[in-house]
Amino acid sequence: MLLVLCVDLDDDLGRKTDIETPVIGRDNVVDAAVSLASVDPEDSDVNVLFEGVHIVDEIDDEPVEVAAVTGADAGDVVANRAVGEEVDTVLASLTASEDVRSLVVTDGAQDESVVPVIRSRIRIDGVRRVVVRQAQDLESMYYTIKQVLNDPETRGTILIPLGILLLIYPMTIAVESLGYPGSALGIISGLLGLYVLGRGLGAERILDKAVDRATSGFYGGRITIITYVVAAALLAIGGLSGVTAYETQLKPLSAVEVLAALVNGSVQWFAAAGITSSLGRVTDEYLNGTFEWRYLNAPFYMLAIGAVLDGLSAFFLGSRTLEYLAVVLTGGTLLGLASTLAFAIAESRLHSAKRHNQDPSGPSSK
After folding, report:
1. Are 197 and 167 contacting, i.e. CB atoms less than 8 angstroms apart?
2. I want to staple 111 with a disulfide (CB 3.0 to 4.6 A). Which of 9, 153, 226, 252 is the partner?
């Protein structure tokens, strides 16, 4: 008896339809193929199922059966094991007295990796790979390229490495003089690499979402639009202030002292940016009716972190004593704990009051 095995290694049939696998019998396989084609007409496993039915219809000189077995969308090892279990189920359902041979039908080399698993259970007479004939004109090529660019999995496996490769050359010549003859070619290659890399990462969707969010913020009256702009300006000022603080140091600095100088000159501005942005977020939450008392912790946390970083950087620069650092660390910790405890108590009491108003206790009147 010949058993025609249609292999779907990544379980498209099971994931995209409600059909339980394995599928045994010509009519059942036809129904499964139609169901899969109705959900995803472009899935190549549809052709595998119909090819298995076609082989069965062509053979009339010996008993023949067709079955569809699937794996799992969880790696080759798990998928191969699942296919092996389904092949065992199919063989257990057959009642033929003679030896059973198999013909494996797949849609590519990836599915053929399961052939050794099947061979360990049943003799394989051959492997049939289904190749769909397509028109070779320009329109077909354009459609194929478009499908590749729109497929997230393909973009991640092809376009991202390609973009990185295109960026290697401009990154190499970036260390050379701008008068280097290949600089123009490097710039072109770099721009192309950035485009391909961004296309592969789906950066256009991220940019569209950011624009939509900013637009909705403008028309929705969100105060965070203003506070984020102010915070960005404060961050820029803080960066410049940190560089200025570093340049005004008169003595040679170690690596730790360089970092301390940058932090000491910018931490006040960074803390102000964090407080500004957090207050804007709290205001929006209040206006939207989703305010929680614990949201008010953010400005106090920013203030505490800023004070601690300012004290640490000043201590490493030698402008503050160890006692001052201890006071700052203790004060920042107490500020964070106090704000957390205070707002937690306030929120707890507010919720208790709401529950009391909604379900007051007392004797019910008759």
Report:
1. yes
2. 9
